[in-house]
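User: Just a sanity check before I run the rest of the batch. Below are the structure tokens for the first item. I only need the designed sequence back.
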């Protein structure tokens, strides 16, 4: 989890020399720009009337490469004057490439197009039509800029139907945000509203005019491109000032985004019971979290692990390139990528895929990108395809694309996204799911007045250098304060909540990936807030939701969340979670319900009193065929134990359970595998308790839960912090393996225990089984209103009598070994159960030899009134 704080203001991409150079123009003190101080890197069209210098200002440190072009039209004076000034700037990182007078002959003669319109000589997917255009295009292909800005002028204002006083941007994700920041910044200095700048989209490849320089760089090459237009009837010094100021702001914003890098994605893998092993790889870096176990490993772009009744979390950059299950049942795990459910197949791209795009309403314009060139494409007449990028306009006739590996971008550039109908390999898919692991940008623009906000996502958040003076990032949450500044974040996943902590919502402008947002739109109705507020002593709690739960910074070190579960302790404050779906369970595990208030979306929910009848017990007659036994009440998630058996038949045996459910369970007598499996009917008691932590008596607690294990020891940690070491009653409740088994326990402590299943001596390894366990504090004297007692007795292969402390009319009796002193397979048997006593014996099986002597084991027992 990242924890990032800052009180440092935004940086500039330009060094001091560059800022000073820009300041000369920004001040408006000069009507014409000075010639660049340095020598040009080269001359384009050298020795001809079109000869023009190219400047390459290299900082010597890695960073963004930007290309600024002026004078494409010779009579657009402010553009080439501003570009000449910009050629003096030195970047603090990366390279600044400047072509101040692209159409030098036109600039010299003061005409727009002395040899034809230079800005119509860059046709898509064709060779530029003139020698000058070809050399300019060679500059683009040589330097491969990360950003291109072309400076122009117009003879009409944008508000009057022209292009003057506008910043056009290519429809690549996030470019509008920088245009908005640049326009807002310069507009603060412009009094007349009709002279203020507006952002707009560049024309698509299907729109007029054609052959435009930035149209080709933006659409064919996918380079983020801007075109700035000033209005020629304004003062020349003002127009130059507008150009240089806008360029500087665009460079600052785009460079800080470029340098910030990609935020991490969050991968969560949760086992629903069985042991599952997995492995995967990414094309970036992968980082372990504190939610991994000893068997989980992270290497160079690869990871592998074991998930077994818990959740593993990883953070990684780049793209997940491989994920596979190497052991266990694929259906036994749940996966979340940036908080969204994913299947194993969804994490592993197909070799080839088929995407169809159709509009069910008005025409919709869109763009998409894939990792490798398209294999085949079927588009309408208004579509364009450039190797691995495509732009289309679709109505009721669908467009179709076949591509290899994966799709990495899909954006709607015009029209209503809800009108789109998308299918991938024949199955419907949403835009969000299609854009598998995108990163996004959030712009928080302060207009006036101090405003503090809190943002939470289901992925991760990364700041940029373009931040206001106060912000703090902790894990998936950021808190910031803006007045008239701008905060620009990058994040993965989706925004779960955006809250104005103090100030007025009207004082901030919000934008995600260039699209205007409101506080309301950034708080999706599918996301709910669970608040647990302490009003007294410490209270421990746990719960589940039907979909996904997300942590917030209002938690402490004892609070935990998995994919659909959470638990924690609260005292003197508030714990808060965000979740999707419904709150399916919430229980107080320790403490008093009166000491907390719990609310969902601000509405207080009533907490039921601690249920002291959540324990049921009774007597059963069990035979070797499976039988179904009904419970007297309905449980949500019951845990049942049913041991030991009586001694009507002398063949070694025990109770086997399966199908433990809300209203009952199946049970049978299971003899060891070397016997014939036919046995006399026996009697046994069952104890069933709701999963969770329960106050079974004032100040005395019981915990019921599940784990999974096989023939190897597995450590289980309690959710409850017991004051004393509890007694543990364990039993397998599934039949995954066909061999007879007993459940063995060792190392019982206040914090947990070890458990495994054990086959006969003649057998060996066993498949993973689900194990139900019940842990109860030994000093308990009642189960609700029913008298009860717990104790520990030493038992070996001879009969040992246990005398109860009180008499019971209808005793319910269960017992379980707390130790594994003897290694041979052994079960417990009972006889002579009365209201005052019972006899117990450790019964070995004889599959390998006839010897049945067994070391003394400590046996815990529970007896209470039915």
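Assistant: Here's the designed sequence for the first item:
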């Amino acid at each position: 989890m990242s924890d990032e704080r800052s009180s440092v203001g935004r940086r500039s991409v330009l060094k001091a020399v560059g800022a000073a150079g820009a300041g000369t123009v920004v001040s408006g003190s000069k009507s014409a720009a000075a010639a660049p101080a340095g020598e040009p890197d080269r001359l384009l069209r050298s020795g001809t009337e079109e000869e023009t210098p190219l400047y390459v200002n290299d900082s010597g440190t890695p960073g963004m490469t930007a290309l600024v072009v002026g004078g494409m039209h010779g009579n657009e004076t402010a553009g080439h004057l501003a570009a000449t000034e910009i050629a003096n700037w030195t970047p603090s990182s990366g390279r600044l490439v400047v072509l101040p007078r692209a159409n030098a002959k036109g600039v010299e003669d003061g005409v727009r197009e002395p040899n034809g319109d230079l800005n119509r000589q860059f046709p898509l997917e064709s060779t530029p039509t003139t020698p000058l255009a070809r050399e300019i295009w060679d500059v683009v292909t040589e330097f491969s800029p990360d950003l291109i800005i072309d400076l122009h002028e117009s003879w009409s204002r944008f508000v009057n139907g022209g292009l003057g006083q506008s910043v056009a941007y290519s429809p690549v994700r996030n470019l509008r945000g920088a245009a908005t920041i640049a326009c807002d910044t310069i507009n603060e200095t412009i009094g007349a509203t009709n002279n203020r700048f507006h952002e707009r989209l560049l024309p698509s490849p299907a729109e007029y005019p054609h052959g435009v320089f930035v149209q080709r760089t933006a659409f064919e090459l996918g380079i983020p491109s801007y075109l700035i237009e000033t209005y020629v009837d304004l003062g020349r010094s003002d127009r130059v000032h507008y150009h240089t100021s806008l360029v500087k702001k665009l460079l600052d914003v785009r460079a800080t985004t470029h340098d910030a890098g990609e935020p991490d994605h969050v991968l969560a893998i949760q086992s629903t019971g069985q042991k599952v092993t997995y492995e995967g790889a990414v094309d970036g870096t992968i980082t372990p979290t504190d939610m991994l176990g000893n068997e989980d490993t992270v290497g160079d772009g690869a990871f592998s692990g074991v998930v077994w009744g818990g959740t593993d979390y990883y953070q990684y950059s780049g793209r997940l390139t491989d994920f596979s299950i190497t052991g266990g049942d694929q259906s036994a795990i749940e996966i979340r990528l940036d908080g969204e459910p994913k299947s194993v197949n969804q994490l592993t791209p197909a070799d080839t895929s088929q995407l169809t795009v159709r509009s069910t309403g008005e025409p919709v314009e869109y763009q998409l990108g894939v990792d490798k060139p398209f294999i085949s494409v079927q588009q309408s007449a208004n579509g364009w395809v450039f190797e691995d990028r495509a732009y289309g306009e679709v109505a009721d006739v669908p467009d179709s694309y076949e591509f290899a590996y994966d799709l990495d971008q899909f954006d709607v550039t015009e029209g209503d996204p809800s009108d789109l109908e998308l299918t991938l390999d024949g199955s419907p898919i949403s835009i969000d799911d299609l854009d598998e692991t995108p990163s996004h940008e959030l712009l928080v623009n302060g207009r006036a007045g101090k405003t503090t906000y809190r943002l939470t996502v289901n992925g991760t958040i990364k700041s940029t250098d373009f931040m206001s003076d106060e912000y703090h990032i902790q894990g998936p949450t950021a808190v910031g304060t803006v007045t008239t500044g701008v905060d620009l974040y990058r994040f993965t996943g989706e925004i779960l909540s955006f809250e104005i902590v103090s100030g007025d919502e009207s004082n901030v402008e919000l934008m995600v990936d260039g699209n205007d947002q409101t506080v309301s739109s950034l708080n999706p109705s599918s996301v709910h807030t669970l608040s647990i507020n302490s009003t007294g002593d410490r209270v421990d709690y746990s719960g589940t939701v039907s979909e996904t739960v997300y942590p917030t910074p209002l938690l402490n070190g004892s609070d935990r969340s998995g994919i659909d579960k959470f638990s924690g302790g609260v005292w003197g404050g508030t714990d808060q979670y965000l979740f999707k779906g419904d709150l399916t369970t919430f229980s107080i595990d320790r403490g008093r319900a009166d000491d907390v208030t719990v609310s969902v979306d601000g509405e207080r929910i009533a907490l039921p009193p601690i249920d002291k009848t959540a324990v049921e017990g009774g007597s059963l007659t069990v035979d070797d065929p499976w039988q179904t036994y009904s419970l007297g009440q309905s449980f949500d998630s019951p845990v049942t134990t049913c041991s030991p058996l009586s001694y009507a038949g002398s063949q070694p045996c025990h109770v086997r359970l399966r199908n433990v459910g809300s209203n009952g369970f199946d049970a049978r007598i299971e003899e060891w595998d070397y016997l014939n499996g036919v046995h006399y009917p026996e009697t046994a008691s069952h104890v069933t308790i709701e999963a969770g932590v329960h106050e079974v008596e004032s100040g005395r607690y019981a915990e019921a839960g599940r784990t999974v294990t096989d023939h190897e020891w597995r450590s289980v940690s309690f959710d409850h912090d017991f004051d004393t070491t509890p007694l543990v009653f364990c039993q397998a409740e599934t039949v995954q393996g066909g061999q007879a088994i007993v459940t063995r326990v060792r190392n019982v402590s206040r914090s947990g225990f070890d458990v495994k299943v054990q086959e006969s001596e003649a057998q060996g390894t066993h498949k993973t089984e689900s194990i139900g366990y019940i842990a109860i504090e030994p000093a308990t004297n009642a189960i609700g209103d029913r008298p009860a007692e717990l104790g520990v007795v030493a038992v070996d292969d001879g009969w040992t009598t246990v005398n109860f402390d009180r008499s019971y009319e209808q005793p319910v009796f269960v017992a379980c070994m707390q130790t594994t002193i003897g290694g041979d397979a052994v079960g417990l048997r009972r006889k002579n159960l009365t209201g005052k006593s019972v006899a117990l014996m450790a019964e070995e099986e004889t599959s390998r030899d006839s010897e049945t002597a067994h070391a003394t084991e400590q046996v815990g027992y529970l007896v209470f009134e039915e």
